[in-house]
Amino acid sequence: MALMCCLPLALAAQENDKQALDSLLTAWHQAASDADFDAYFGLMAPGAAFIGTDASENWDKEAFMAFSRPYFEQGKAWSFKAVQRNIYLGPDGKTAWFDELLDTWMQLCRGSGAAVKTPGGWKIAHYVLSMTIPNEEVDGAILLKKASDSLVRARLSGEIQD
């Protein structure tokens, strides 16, 4: 019986966490749109990772800050708006993962990632941005990126030295 009385409290806490994560992601995207460097990177956890759409874009937080700073300083970073978002909470109550469909200058993209609960609230720990490609257009996309993907594979295997 005691467990039954606590279940609504646990569900309410989970819903509060999901709302906090939704607000975090919305604020993070808004900070980029506003070119607010401090707010944007302040919402990322120490040691966070950002994976971009290009095969070379696999940054830790510090490297991503260095890459992004010129865009923010010009007053125009990027503008992503979620059109769909799913948030999932880990059983420990301190981790979460999410996916979102984004309206961007690249058309629809997919964002996915993980967040951690810190003493200062939820922070983004890992984010992956991917372009979406309709299944019927995959063959054309493969042809479009074949040459650059071959170079990336050669660099990663050591066949080509930079």
Write the layout of secondary structure elements.
Elements: H1 2-33, H2 37-42, E1 44-51, E2 58-60, H3 61-73, E3 81-89, E4 95-104, E5 107-118, E6 121-131, H4 138-157
Parallel strand pairs: 1-6
Antiparallel strand pairs: 1-2, 3-4, 4-5, 5-6
Corresponding CATH architecture: Roll
- SSE-based structural type: alpha+beta
Describe the largest sheet.
6 strands, mixed
Shape: globular
Order of helices and strands: HHEEHEEEEH
Please tell me the overall pLDDT: 93
Strand content: 25-35%
Number of strands: 6
CATH first level: Alpha Beta
Number of domains: 1
How would you explain this protein's 3D organization?
- The protein is α+β, with helices and mostly antiparallel strands and 162 residues long.
- It has a single domain (2-131), classed as Roll (Nuclear Transport Factor 2, Chain: A), CATH 3.10.450.50.
- Helices cover 44% and strands 33% of the residues.
- The protein has four helices and six strands; from the N terminus they run H-H-E-E-H-E-E-E-E-H.
- The chain has helices at 2-33, 37-42, 61-73, 138-157, and strands at 44-51, 58-60, 81-89, 95-104, 107-118, 121-131.
- Strands 2-1-6-5-4-3 form a six-stranded mixed sheet.
- A hairpin with a 2-residue loop joins strand 5 and strand 6 (121-131).
- The protein is globular and about 55 Å long.
- The mean pLDDT is 93.
List keywords for this structure.
alpha+beta; Nuclear Transport Factor 2, Chain: A; 44% helix; 162 residues; 4 helices
